[in-house]
Automatic annotation (TrEMBL):
Domain of life: Bacteria
Protein name: 2-methylcitrate dehydratase PrpD
Family named by the database record: Belongs to the PrpD family.
Domain MmgE/PrpD C-terminal: 280-451
Single GO MF annotation: lyase activity
MmgE/PrpD N-terminal domain location: 12-255
């Protein structure tokens, strides 16, 4: 499929229509999408114990409107776009969502909430859900790859301080919702054209603070839903919205774009297999640092024995997890701690739970705990040539250390856990889901939800989502105000 004869948005719309009609899609991707729904719902439930939950709850209640879908944790139904916003925010709030490499996008946190809300509102089948989710994620990832510069070794979006996840996720969500609403090729194409004016997101909060990034995926899910609804109602978008002189890619990335990434082998080569699941609830750039710390513990070395630590990571990641150095060594909140390489090392050495680093390692109280801060202060983040060369197709780390007794050593993490040959096992997925869900639900309800998710191909989205309106009165574990 090429873009020579038709605008790219038209080709993507044709692709969406073709996949919706493909009876083999569930057989090929049904289990994968079920796993992503499980991951998103687990992450979302855990996020109901954070300070962002009352924020979005208050806002969507204020918006009001026809009760068509479930906003997790709210007793009453809300409009479809409101549910997508609330649930998408929760899905991304803990930075625990799946990630596509090398674009470093989190596609499911926007696409899945938009799909679930719309499917619940219109009574869509699981077959329709799978088709919409697969196509929405595929388009999100391909948009990210169109803005990936191989020579640069990084996303042009990120180089410009733009959050590609929310920007590209808006368009992927719009296509997915338009598919569920029964839109034809023209309507789906217009949903892309409209959504391109709605996607946004800046990354400055990663560097200097602020919690606005939490709503990025929620807003992408909301905007994509609204764009599709507007297209169905008759609003139109420019046909050359992606490749045009004043289009999506030119506006966000300038001339450093790869249009072929959008359409080459579309429907043949899928990006879904390159979307890994996170084992740790923090920025993915910190993950190989955590992996190295856990291996250090396996060697029998404790935090008190360490004199200094040097964590070598990919140069482009330093701006996110190492700069400014003083702030990264002393995060003030659990949320800031999620984007700190030095703190991630300390958490892995001194914390535990979950799959090695747990949600409780990123509370406000944990972030300022003196022993963790003291250890983080002994961690120096540097550019490692091998990690930079591998980035972002692999997130890696070379950790050097010296003990108080003068013993030096090195640990190399060639690829972060959850990706490639280190993909999470079924048991690890289950551990992550149970750990997350149990923060908001009593054990009996977690077990019931787990069984319901196992029956997902035969369970309506209404039955699945309506069961998430009632949470435990205590909301599980103590509130992670900074998360």
């Amino acid at each position: 499929m090429t873009s020579d004869a038709q605008p790219i948005a038209h080709l993507l719309a044709r692709f969406a229509v073709d996949q919706r009609a493909d009876p083999t899609l569930v057989e090929r991707f049904g289990e994968d999408i079920r796993g992503r729904i499980v991951d998103v719902l687990g992450n979302s439930l855990a996020a109901t114990t954070t300070a962002v939950f009352p924020v979005t709850s208050t806002v969507v209640r204020t918006w009001g409107g026809a009760p068509r879908a479930t906003a997790i944790g709210l007793d009453d139904g809300v409009p479809t776009a409101s549910a997508a916003f609330h649930n998408g925010t929760l899905a991304h709030a803990l930075d625990f969502d799946d990630t596509h490499l090398p674009s470093v996008l989190h596609p499911s946190a926007s696409v899945i909430p938009a799909v679930l809300a719309t499917a619940e509102a219109v009574g869509a089948s699981y077959e329709a859900v799978v088709a919409a989710a697969v196509v929405g994620i595929e388009i999100t990832n391909r948009l990210g790859m169109a803005g990936y510069d191989d020579a640069l070794g990084n996303s042009v979006f990120f180089e410009r301080g733009l959050h590609a996840t929310s920007i590209c996720g808006t368009l992927g969500s719009a296509v997915a919702v338009a598919m569920l609403l029964g839109g034809d090729q023209d309507v789906i194409g217009h949903s892309i054209g409209i959504a391109a004016s709605m996607g946004a997101g800046l990354l400055e909060a990663n560097r200097t603070g602020g919690t606005v990034k939490k709503v990025h995926c929620g807003w992408a899910a909301h905007s994509g839903t609204v764009a599709a609804e507007l297209a169905v109602a008759g609003l139109t978008g420019p046909p050359t919205v992606l490749e045009g002189r004043f289009g999506f890619l030119q506006a966000h990335c300038g001339d450093r774009v790869d249009l072929r990434a959008l359409t080459d082998n579309l429907g043949t080569d899928w990006t879904l297999g390159a979307v890994g699941f996170k084992p740790y609830p923090c920025n993915i750039y910190t993950h190989p640092v955590i992996d190295a710390a856990l291996q250090l513990r396996e060697r029998g070395i404790t935090a008190d024995q360490l004199d200094w630590v040097e964590a070598g990571v990919a140069k482009p990641t330093l701006r996110t997890i190492a700069e400014p150095p003083a702030k990264k060594a002393s995060p003030e909140t659990g949320y800031e701690a999620q984007f700190s390489g030095p703190y991630a090392f300390a958490a892995a050495m001194l914390g535990g739970g979950g799959l090695g680093v747990s949600l409780e390692d990123f509370t406000d109280a944990a972030a300022v705990e003196p022993r963790r801060r003291a250890l983080a202060a002994r961690v120096r983040m540097v550019d490692a040539e091998s990690a930079t060369a591998a980035f972002p197709r692999r997130i890696s780390c070379v950790l050097r250390y010296c003990t108080q007794q003068g013993e030096e050593g090195e640990i190399t993490i060639p690829v972060n856990r959850g990706f490639g040959a280190r993909t999470l096992t079924a048991d690890e997925h289950l551990t992550k889901f149970r750990t997350n869900a149990s923060t908001a639900l009593p054990a009996q309800q977690v077990e019931a939800l787990e069984k319901a998710l196992q029956r997902l191909p035969h369970l309506s989205m209404t039955d699945l989502m309506s069961g998430l309106r009632q949470l435990a009165p205590t909301h599980g574990s103590p509130e992670r105000k900074g998360s």
